[in-house]
Amino acid sequence: xxxxxxxxxxxxxxxxxxxxxxxxxxxxxxxxxxxxxxxxxxxxxxxxxxxxxxxxxxxxxxxxxxxxxxxxxxxxxxxxxxxxxxxxxxxxxxxxxxxxxxxxxxxxxxxxxxxxxxxxxxxxxxxxxxxxxxxxxxxxxxxxxxxxxxxxxxxxxxxxxxxxxxxxxxxxxxxxxxxxxxxxxxxxx
Length: 189
Known about the structure:
By secondary structure, the chain is α+β, with helices and mostly antiparallel strands. The chain contains 6 helices and 10 strands. The strands form 2 sheets. The protein has a 5-stranded antiparallel sheet. A 5-stranded antiparallel sheet has the order 3-4-5-2-6, with helices on one face.
């Protein structure tokens, strides 16, 4: 049987090669695949999970913490997304699962559920606001913030990693739609 990591194909691969070639102030790029684990648990469990993962999760609402290629996103009062870029999801899940056996928590591998897009440039917030109702000004949505929101008709996780860089994590079935939406929006900005 093939490993799921081998069978994984990014839903955005055809989009990047067929994207508009004109120069825009905002760039779109496909983020690398990552192990993604949804964790649910109370304070003691999240502390144990963070210690094993090597990133102390934020307990502040709508914030994420990144260390190297690993990030932890606050999704709700007892829910976080652990992400490890270019790491084997089976190994990351196995290690986390073993480390959390004594904890009352839930850990689910969602690595194959979504793909990521980086939206970067001085007009990135404006491009996203063509379909996202949030105030994406630096004051209202600072670096290190993340939230679940919508873009057009697609639900997604939006985060700001730098002043002019946003990351969009969107379910694979909506990824081509979101890419085309952003590609068209940047031509209008």
